[in-house]
Amino acid sequence: MGFDGAVPTAERLAQLRAQAAQAKAEAAEAKALAAQAALEAAEAATQTRAHNVSAHVVSSPGGVAATVPISYRPTSSETPTPTTPPVPPPPPAPHVPPAPAHHPAQQLLPFGTHMTQTKPSPHTANNPTLIGFDAQSMNQHGLISGSSGTGKTRTVQVISEALSFAGVPVFIADTTGDASGLALPADTHSPNTTHSAHTPNFPVEFYSIGGTSVGVPIRSTVCDFGPILLTRALGLTAEHEHGLDAVFKWADKNGLPLLDLKDVVAVIHQLTSPDRRTPAQYFGLADVPSADVLLRAIESLRAQGGEQFFGEPSFDTKDVVRQSGQRNALISILELSSVHFLPNLYSAFFLWLIADACQTLPRTRQHTRPTAVFFFDEAEFAFSHASPRFIKQVVATLEKARMHGILVFFVSSSPHNLPVEVAAQLRHHIHHGVRGSFDSDAHIRFVSRALPTFPYDVGALLQTLPRGHAVVSISDSSGIVTPGVWTKVRMPQTSIGSAPPSFIEHHVRSSPGYQRYGTSVDNYSAHEMLAARIAQEQATQQQRLYQDTSKDDLIREAKQVYKSLASTKKKKSKKKNMKQRFDGEFEALLKIAGSHVSKEITRTFLGTRQHK
């Protein structure tokens, strides 16, 4: 009701004053209610953050302290919950402080910056909230997933740097060669820089499987590998594993060391040879066709270059889990460009390396920092056509590794292809973007199940995440997985991309490991021992043949020949002359036979004593 221009009466003025007073009171009450609601929301957000965030302090440039949460979940007051987030443009690079100073008690592993849609979380203008791993609670295996080109190698690089800085040895199985940049500082990544000017910030060793590429060769004897892993390396089924079990059993029983593949071939030939048939209780393959399957699988592995892995000198896993003696822990990089051609050998090698490292390192307490961390790239190849027994062995090995402080991170572009039993062992999750592919839907479903609590539409976000961004969900010391956090991975301190081949070769040739493992050695083993035994058996048979032919047998045979020849002669004169001539030949024959028999007996007698 407004003013119509007429002169108001006293009653009308009183009415207007009452209405104005009532409106003012209502406005004040609404404002008070709004302020009270905002206060309650702020207090609830503070309590939620105090419950969900375990913070550490990292000194940043200028002495400003930056809060680094171990796990962080955005509140509703800070972050809206869109069902389909818009495609974010490349966000401005936030200020990320450098890694903390090296100290034995330092347990923080900085990883990246917490993001809210296209911007860093707005807690402070210059120091946004950072995401990091607490080494004390980092006692679970993990998974790093994402399509090619989304930043998985960068994530491995950043975590490896932080672990090395904290004194934890790292082993990286690299299929792209990009991890070799860890050997070079970030500011020297230039085509005009020569390897003589490179001064690595982290001690790095380069390895290869059996010398198939540039790197210190890693080898293992067949005996150390065992029948289960050899079955996997040959790509055989569980049925043929029993045959290999028998090969190992018979070789152990007869003291035949199995060092390389030619030793296995020699034992199989020995067991299946018709004239040297071994009783069935010592050999599981009674039929020759089954043995032929083993021989064909071994020949196929040889043709692909896998034979170089088996032999001596056998690699000592202490060399990859040892302390470098320098400021930072050792980072070992295994070049695996041929993993696509040898997936079975790769998976068997991975399991052998972890199991052998468990025998090297002692058991640790549950809530201590890891003793070693292994990264295995292209993990989906390790389980292609894997048998249930092999998967069971992998799960058992992973469980045992945790008891020894050994953590394993699988790096995969197809995490949904990992066995369910293995995926259940992986509690730390870092998921990069998913690009268009035929199995992207399965990839997204896998991540959605792994991240049950996440404030965004997982499928839409994964398809729009920029390179270097990831959704991070980690496990605390009790094994509880925290909610997912959108994170921008920090830039590594080392070079992004592959190191020059000339630098890697120079680095390998000057490595102490190359002096120890660089040259293969063909020691005396089952192949040579069986060949010597066969030669000895043949010599013994010949000696027995000569021994059985006595001098009396030779004389009797000679008389029969004489009678036969004498009866054919009809003339007396000729018969007499022939008798005289034959007697002379016969006496010469006896002399030769006696001399021959005496020599064979003497040689056999001395040979037997020498063998005794």
Short summary:
With 612 residues, the chain is α/β, with parallel strands linked by helices. It has helices spanning 10-52, 152-165, 222-234, 238-253, 261-272, 288-303, 318-321, 343-360, 379-382, 388-403, 420-423, 440-450, 458-462, 501-509, 512-517, 526-548, 551-567, 572-611, and strands at residues 55-59, 65-69, 108-116, 119-120, 130-134, 141-145, 170-174, 204-209, 216-218, 331-335, 372-376, 406-412, 426-431, 469-473, 485-489.
Helix content: 40-55%
Which consecutive residue ranges, at least 5 long each, have pLDDT under 50?
45-106, 188-200, 592-612
CATH second-level architecture of the largest domain: 3-Layer(aba) Sandwich
Instruction: Count the DSSP helices.
Output: 18
**CATH class designation of the largest domain:** Alpha Beta
Largest sheet: 13 strands, mixed
What's the shape?
elongated
Structural class: alpha/beta
- Any idea what the CATH superfamily of the largest domain is called? P-loop containing nucleotide triphosphate hydrolases
CATH-derived topology of the largest domain: Rossmann fold
The overall pLDDT, averaged over residues, is 75
